[in-house]
Amino acid sequence: MMYLHKFTRWSLKGDPEMGKTLTAQGRPYTLVGVCDERHHDRVVEFFIWDAVCVTCGETFEHRSTRSRFNATANCERHRPKCREKY
Ligand SMILES: [Zn+2]
């Protein structure tokens, strides 16, 4: 079972379930992909979500890691200049 858990920040628990929609801060996030990317000497697991921009309501591709899920995600246009580093 996949679900979102918030302790001090949102993180993803359980096995990834493709096509499943989870809700965080009242916004739907649908899991559409999982990929591994190499960052320096370690492999980071990325989760790709269909998300809704909190500012304009447009859907866009949102990426998260298992331990860091940004629940106040904005589309490319409404993203703050200082982007979160993974
Ligand atoms: Zn937007």
Topology:
Blueprint: E1 3-6, E2 10-13, E3 21-24, E4 27-39, E5 42-52, E6 59-65
Antiparallel strand pairs: 1-2, 3-4, 4-5, 5-6
This protein binds zinc ion (ZN).
Summary tags:
86 residues; SH3 type barrels; four-stranded antiparallel β-sheet; two-stranded antiparallel ribbon; 6 strands
Strand and helix order: EEEEEE
The number of helical segments is 0
Spatial order of the strands in the main sheet?
3-4-5-6
Q: What is the level-2 CATH architecture name?
A: Roll
The overall pLDDT, averaged over residues, is 88
Helix vs. strand class? mainly beta
Bound ligands, named by name, code or SMILES: zinc ion
Low-confidence stretches: none
CATH topology type:
SH3 type barrels
Distance between the termini: 25 Å
What overall geometry do the principal axes of the alpha carbons give? globular
Oligomerization category of the chains in this entry: single chain
Helix fraction, binned, reads under 10%
Radius of gyration (CA) equals: 13 Å
Largest sheet: 4 strands, antiparallel
CATH class: Mainly Beta
Describe this structure in words.
With 86 residues, the chain is mostly beta strands. It has one domain (3-78): Roll (SH3 type barrels), CATH 2.30.30. It has no helices and six strands. The chain has a four-stranded antiparallel sheet, with no helix packed on it. The protein has a two-stranded antiparallel sheet with strand order 1-2. It starts with a strand and ends in a 21-residue tail after the last strand. The relative contact order is 0.21. Residues 53, 55-56, 58, 74-75, 77-78 line the site of zinc ion (ZN).
